[in-house]
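Researcher: I'd like a structural prediction for the single chain below. Treat it as a standalone chain; there are no partners to consider.
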Amino acid sequence: MQDDQGDIVAYTREDLHAVLAAQLGTFAGDGRIRALYEEMISEWVQTSDDPGGEYARYFDGGPIATRADLTAAMMWAKGRTI
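Model: Treating it as a single chain, here is the predicted structure.
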């Protein structure tokens, strides 16, 4: 599957959790990661034409993210602490 920009959507919510956890020095199952994930997605969708739909997409099962999303998550977490 591809997104609107033609990037391949191949990564899951768990992959995004893992990126956040690695950047923040914890494990993906840490409950704080789920809370930070929700915060990150809430910030990301504010610039969307369809914030509700975009928000829901990031909480679907299966592939939901591109490589660019993984990089954006890593950059979002950089410098944050939990």
